[in-house]
Amino acid sequence: MRILRASDYKRMPWKNGGGETVEITVSPERASLETFDWRISMATVATDGPFSSFAGIDRTLSILSGNGMNLTIKGMPPVSLNQQSDPLRFPADVETTATLTDGPITDLNVMTRRGVFRHQVEKRTAPIAAPEALQTRLILNGGTAMRCDWRGGSVDLAHLDCLIIDPHAPALTVAGDGTIYLVHLDNESQSPSC
Questions:
Q1: Mean of the per-residue pLDDT values of the chain
Q2: Which Gene3D superfamilies does the protein's record reference (predicted)?
């Protein structure tokens, strides 16, 4: 288990220079926007405009705060996202434009390199019980104070803190009140063939 505190996240400009992103974690460690295998970040979207394009990347977007936005994604019907919406998965290398509903939003952005890693994002409400991890997982506290307990340990997570659960970690429970995001990351190159 590794704890990531919101106060330690790395701030950097968007790839297209249109705003600021807060990098929660990336693999490999210290990878650039062009070389990561997977990346988890948050971004504040304050104006309407295009998303950055990432060749060969799949992304999932969730709204953490604000009144939402409308997305125009090439090849897909228009989509409206707000805090109540399920996470939205789409290719990060197709033309995408956002129009804010009413003021700025902050989103959670999970990206994986196609053919190298795949991911799934679950939006859940605490308390929950999570089974033993078969792949790397991350829990992001989208609510208020929460507590994670597992055999032999526990940790308190403040708003937007994360816990990384490495493969084969023990089962855990998350106590508290509010939304949590479970991010599953699976290395495709190590997955058993069918």
A1: 90
A2: Jelly Rolls (2.60.120.10)
